[in-house]
Amino acid sequence: MTKSPKTIGHYEVKELIGKGGMGEVYLCYDPKTERDVALKRIRPEMHGIPLIRQRFLKEAKIAAQLTHPAILGVYSIEENFQDLFYIMPFIQGKTLKTLLASYRQSKASTIHLVRDFLTICHAVQYAHSKGVLHRDLKPENILIGPFNEVLIYDFGLAEYADMNEESFDDMPVLKSHPDLTRVGKIVGTITYMAPERILEKLDSVQSDIYSLGVILYQILTLKHPFKRQSVKQFKQQAQEEKILDPIDVAPMREIPPLLAKIAMRCLSFKKEHRYQNLKEMISDLEQYFEGKADWVFAARLDPKNPSDWELQETVVLKQTKDWAIYMLSSTLFPGNVKLEAHITLEKGSEGVGFLLGVAHRM
Prior knowledge:
Elements: E1 7-8, E2 11-19, E3 23-30, E4 35-42, H1 50-65, E5 76-79, E6 84-89, E7 94-95, H2 96-106, H3 113-129, E8 132-133, E9 142-144, E10 150-152, E11 159-160, H4 195-199, H5 205-221, H6 231-237, H7 246-249, H8 257-266, H9 278-289, H10 310-314
Antiparallel strand pairs: 1-2, 2-3, 3-4, 4-6, 5-6, 7-9, 8-11, 9-10
Helix pairs in contact: 3-5, 3-9, 5-8
């Protein structure tokens, strides 16, 4: 086992706190600012590989450009012929992955974590506004601090929205460093990846939204929405993958219907059925916190499409056989009026809603 260095640059190394495919993270003391910092440097055995250095440097620059309270920032980037590292704030907290594991043991409610999840969504929305896709959103890349700090970190797989997977996946050097990528040249964590990323290698805002949906599902149920063993297995069974409603998966956890609906929409197989941007998703989450969770979005109707309004063609009043669109008045219907509807839902229908306007004459 390689011993940790005593110093890196002018930083005094306290301990190694993490190690990944490309880099290693140390808790260090900065004597110039007299504070603890987190230092991430490229692994020594990869220092001499230009393409690995390029990717590591790109990760640091992307994180440095994202100045948001819920994104772990970068103080500085230092590069020379011997070393490449960057400096971040040191936050003594726990990852969301660790917290969820503890909740599985205690069986306590996790609804309060939804507010932290909303903070995460705002941070990802900000990254998207800067043209950055995270591409590896998962609980272990989310840090929760002791003073309610909520931070996304590890932009090692991040790309600008106009890039594609080939920007790094097809590098020949990966053959000698298989821990830097995934089977089939797909980077990311398969259990958090949108179907189109696995099947077509396509990244988009909607693929990050899918990953957020997996995280929300886990917060609500403390379970994963599906089991994926490998890229090969998913490709063979993609169309058969079924995701159960969180309420059905964890009926004893009293999951609010609106939150379950948000998670399920994020996890739609086709990206056009998901939220098209974080603004839409955040709006629904804020609706929950405002106590307006009784109205749940089911489908968007197109007034120009007759098939969206077939219900009107079958709604009649029992005695008059007329359309059920009426202006009721005391002269037309003296006394109390009762409207009764008998509705038959076709296969695949999710529900029906009524809007009744009552005018009161003073």
